[in-house]
Amino acid sequence: MAQILENAWQYLITNFSEFQLASAGTFIIHESVFFLSGLPYLLMETWGLRKYKIQRKVNTPAAQEKCVMRLIMYHVCVNLPLMIVSYPVFKYMGFTSALPLPSWKVVSLQIFSYFILEDFIFYWGHRILHTKWLYKHVHSVHHEYATPFGLTSEYAHPAEILFLGFATIFGPAITGPHLLTLWLWVSVRVLETVEAHCGYDFPWSLSRFLPIYGGADFHDYHHRLLYTKSGNYSSTFTYMDWIFGTDKGYRKLKALKSAQEAHDAMSAPTEKVE
């Protein structure tokens, strides 16, 4: 497997320049992972698959189409130029695409550190976006979808794309990773944010097995409430909201739901055994 990966990598760096791979290549990776992971949730909503849907409301076809068309425009006009102009900074910090490929230990450690940095920066950036002026003029675009679906994860004002996008690229920008690490980081970060906005709380959702992970239920609460009372500002993990008490409303609601479910279970009639 390692040899196949190295052969494929050798083909890439032989036939394409590092700049092409870091800019256009990263853009292609991002678009592929984003739309391939996000479109199934759009189809679920369109087909009315409601069993695990968090909210009953479904976005209209016009709203869904608007989201997709705006995303394509934002990605081409904002994301791609950002990837192009970021390359010199990455290169200055030691970025490389050459063989040998980094070990999985190095890749795992770097991606873990990126999640920690991204969580911290995103939390504070997101809280700032929920101040009155910035919400009205910038962040309200993202909150046009009170009932999110996977693709709405990156539906935002161009200024917000740059503002919060900084949180995603900060880690790689200061460490100058290998291109493989960058591509894996972009992929897992996209998969995480799409899942957080998917609108479905499945029995196999990661948040059910990893309590510190936010997931769809945690972030869906954020979209349902008014901007001044929403809380749940975290990106991937929930510890920042817990530390600063900005998830109190969500935790109170979860406790009330658990108590109601327990009460209903105790009140349910039991079958009489003959």
Automatic annotation (TrEMBL):
A GO term for molecular function: iron ion binding
One of the protein's GO biological processes: 4-alpha-methyl-delta7-sterol oxidation
Main location: membrane
One Gene Ontology CC term in the entry: endoplasmic reticulum membrane
InterPro entries per record: Fatty_acid_hydroxylase (IPR006694), Sterol_Desaturase_Related (IPR050307)
Entry's localization field: Membrane
Coiled-coil ranges from the UniProt annotation: none
Sorted UniProt keywords: Membrane, Transmembrane, Transmembrane helix
Residue ranges of every copy of the Fatty acid hydroxylase domain listed in the record: 113-246
Keyword Transmembrane appears in the UniProt entry: yes
Tree of life domain: Eukaryota
Pfam families: FA_hydroxylase
TM segment ranges: 20-43, 71-90, 102-124, 161-186
Family the UniProt entry places it in: Belongs to the sterol desaturase family.
Name of the protein described by the UniProt record: Fatty acid hydroxylase domain-containing protein
Taxonomic classification: Eukaryota, Viridiplantae, Streptophyta, Embryophyta, Marchantiophyta
